[in-house]
Design goal:
This protein is mainly beta and 610 residues long. The chain has nine helices and 37 strands.
Length: 610
């Protein structure tokens, strides 16, 4: 991002925002920065610490006398005594290092009703200003919320922390109990804060409040200006114009990257499991999640327009004695492969009856899985084919029979298509793709609704390849459409993007930074290059690698617990540890849905309260 020279000191933090927001922050940072004043907390203090040997000197304790002087005492004792009387002995002088007295900077924000609206933007700007101030002082910046029931200090090293600050808004006004709790908390910290900033309105300067700096933020009576007053020995004040609402409102909603977010929908979603990822329909119209308190799935219809106000939610349940292994959509109906001790059951799949559970050597079906098994459904007028890939690379399928024609010979039994399969995916609404390891080489295949299997290309050496990502697109109907082969070396993922042959492109090698994880592959508009969808190491961000550049698509306040990507619909669905579901369109750069999935049913509420 190109920044004006005046904004370079805050480049690290301003890169988190879309360019449209730069004028707003340029005004805020430029006006507030002179208000802060000189640094405190950098004074050297305490007892100096020894830091090796520094020099030679004529005075000192005899335990630091040079060894050559002691040799003189043995060989020429009279000379040794003479040198002692005359003060000519040479001693080693220690090097001392002065202690940094204060290496911690703390800022506590009032997130109550007196700081709603534009004052919260001042909070964001102050957090960035103090982060740079702490860096200049060689200190660590930690921030907290005055109204927190349990005082907690947070780091500030990602855009998620800015959203966390905004999300902390509360209707509770700061009271004496908050001051006392924070004062006791800071007194118990092993490291004393050199500067402690309080940001809000009506913050008292009293022995109870632990602040060295007070920043009072309040709106003028005319409603067109903000007054920011700093008290730190002396009092300084600056007046700020109210920011443009077209920029301020998205920022206050946490829309930092300039994405478009649909209006908040009314509705509740039952509590869902954090151990299994969301399931995305290939049409991009529905999301399904595993219910936590009941055996079944909750299906959410994604809003069709920004004018939609009510969230459409549907629940489907299966027999609680059966374990779900794989879940997918057949049009708008969520379906699953279920297992018990003797049978495989096909839930909500017309034309598929239960079959004997295959032996473990034929199909590895773990009784309790931490992830759904890869699955694909190919519909046809006669019924369709359901494919499942087990944990050992066995690709099995079952043929559904609608009853309108004679049953095919595969109906009513488990069939096997291939072994040593690394991955499968829907690559078109009526085509499935999979990659097969044959004699140490990888081959890509397509399967049609009638079961026709075609090898569409050799991808290269299989050595070290642990994962395959498919780029869904119409090219698969006739040829190979592109995929990425993943390897892991010392904890770092690398991907070889093998393009469609018809694009006449060279393969691309992508080496991700440590901790980044590839989620999916998309063929970008114009069909001239591929992009890799990724998740950040801190599990707070979803990013995109495209044409050698990396960008952040969106971030979450809480860590991501589970994530899914559907290449056909281009949707990313993440479920955070707070059970917040976020659905993002990669092609549209739009946050499609944001909803909490933590609604307890009445009987579970009673059980929780008991």
């Amino acid at each position: 991002m190109q920044l004006p020279e005046s904004l370079h000191p805050w480049r690290q933090w301003l890169e988190w925002f879309a360019p449209d927001y730069l004028p707003l922050f340029a005004d805020l940072l430029g006006r507030l920065n002179p208000l802060l004043g000189p640094l405190h907390g950098r004074q050297q203090g305490g007892v100096p610490e020894p830091d090796g040997l520094g020099d030679l000197q004529r005075r000192g304790p005899y335990e630091r006398l040079l060894s050559s002087e002691w040799l003189l005492a043995e060989e020429l004792p009279d000379e040794f005594l003479r040198r002692a009387v005359e003060g000519e002995h040479v001693f080693l002088a220690p090097q001392y290092r002065a202690r940094q007295a204060n290496r911690l900077m703390v800022v506590l924000f009032d997130a109550g009703p007196l700081q709603l609206g534009a004052a919260r933007l001042v909070h964001l700007a102050l957090l960035m200003l103090l982060a740079r101030r702490a860096r200049q002082a060689g200190a660590e910046l930690r921030w907290g919320i005055l109204q927190d029931a349990t005082p907690t200090l947070h780091a500030f090293d990602s855009v998620a922390h800015l959203r966390q600050l905004l999300d902390a808004a509360t209707w509770t006004v700061v009271n004496d109990g908050h001051w006392q709790a924070w004062r006791a908390f800071l007194a118990d910290q092993p490291q004393r804060a050199g500067e402690c900033w309080g940001v809000g309105l009506r913050l008292p300067r009293s022995p109870v409040a632990p602040f060295t700096h007070l920043v009072q933020v309040q709106r003028h009576l005319d409603g067109q200006r903000l007054s920011v007053e700093l008290q730190a020995g002396s009092t300084r004040q600056v007046t700020l114009p109210i920011p443009d609402a077209r920029l301020a409102v998205p920022l206050l909603k946490g829309q930092f990257e300039g994405e478009v977010v649909r209006s908040v929908l009314k509705g509740t979603v039952s509590r869902v499991s954090l151990t299994l990822p969301p399931v995305i329909s290939i049409t991009g119209k529905h999301i399904a999640l595993r219910l936590l308190d009941e055996p079944g799935m909750v299906v959410i219809r994604l809003p069709a327009s920004e004018q939609q106000l009510n969230l459409q939610v549907h629940h489907s349940f299966w027999n609680g004695a059966r374990t779900p292994l794989a879940v997918t959509f057949m049009s708008r109906t969520v379906t699953a492969v279920l297992s018990d001790s003797d049978w495989l059951w096909f839930w909500n799949v017309r034309g598929l009856r239960p079959v004997d559970k295959p032996e473990r050597e034929q199909l590895q079906l773990p009784p309790g899985t931490a992830n759904w098994l890869p699955v694909a459904w190919l519909p046809s007028r006669q019924g369709g084919r359901l494919f499942v890939l087990d944990t050992q690379g066995h690709l099995a399928y079952w043929v559904a029979h609608s009853g309108k024609a004679p049953a095919p010979p595969e109906a009513g039994k488990t069939c096997y298509l291939a072994d040593n399969v690394l991955g499968l995916s829907m690559v078109d609404p009526h085509w499935m793709g999979y990659v097969h390891n044959k004699a140490g080489h990888l081959y890509a295949y397509t399967v049609t609704v009638d079961g026709t299997t075609t090898c569409v290309g050799m991808l290269g050496d299989a050595d070290g390849v642990t994962e395959v990502l498919f780029a869904a697109n119409p090219l698969w109907r006739k040829h190979f459409g592109g995929c990425a082969l993943g390897r892991v070396d010392n904890g770092r993922q690398s991907w070889k993007v093998v393009p469609a042959h018809s694009l006449q492109m060279d393969s691309e090698h992508i080496h991700l930074a440590p901790g980044w994880k590839g989620l999916g592959l998309v063929l970008q508009p114009g069909r001239r290059h591929y992009a890799l969808v990724m998740m950040a190491p801190d599990k707070h961000s979803i990013g995109l690698w495209s044409q050698g550049q990396q960008q952040v698509l969106f971030t979450t306040t809480q860590p991501i617990a589970r994530v899914s990507f559907c290449s056909l619909s281009g949707l990313v669905a993440v479920l955070t540890t707070a059970r917040e579901l976020l659905v993002y369109s990669v092609s549209g750069r739009t946050l499609v849905l944001q909803v909490m999935c933590n609604q307890l049913k009445d009987e579970h509420k009673e059980r929780t309260d008991a």
